[in-house]
Amino acid sequence: MTLKSFILSFLFFSVIQFSFAQQDSINFDEVLNAKIKRYQKQLASEELSQKEFDFIIDTMKVETRLQVDLESDYSTSGMVNATYQAEESYDKLLNKYYKILYAHLNKKDKAVLKKAQLSWLSFRDNERLLFQSLSDEAYSGGGSIQRVFSSHRYLTLTKDRVIQLAHYYLYAENL
């Protein structure tokens, strides 16, 4: 087999596989429930608090939705949309865990948390602006892949902050 026929065969089968993969319907609830059952057994043996378990389930829902969406449509547009939806879900969790932590603190520490969160929001917005600039064709070479990189960076910023806030709350609760 020549290299040319090998490449053509590879491309043909790749297109066929991509076409069928795009049509597969993955049931989010089934995947999530299977993961929860698997993890419930593991988590029960690790002596986690209910709040720790709830946080794990909250983030597992977002990550499972992202995984299912990415596996359902791995086109550039599909990846970007799935990642932005995950970022929106993490933003909701960010607000949830901010409110939980805020309610747990005394008046003085609430002011500190509020100031820290406002600073983080400013950092996040400026980080997004910087990443948009660096995604420009002059720096990155351009291409639709830059949208995937940007959406992932946005997701990572928000996800990391959710984890920080949850850790602060769980730490403060155990004092």
TrEMBL record:
Pfam families in the cross-refs: LprI
Nucleotide-binding is among the record's keywords: no
Domain Lysozyme inhibitor LprI-like N-terminal: 73-165
InterPro entries in alphabetical order: LprI-like_N
Keywords in alphabetical order: Signal
Signal peptide region: 1-21
Name of protein: Lysozyme inhibitor LprI-like N-terminal domain-containing protein
Species, as recorded: Sphingobacterium hungaricum
Organism lineage: Bacteria, Pseudomonadati, Bacteroidota, Sphingobacteriia, Sphingobacteriales
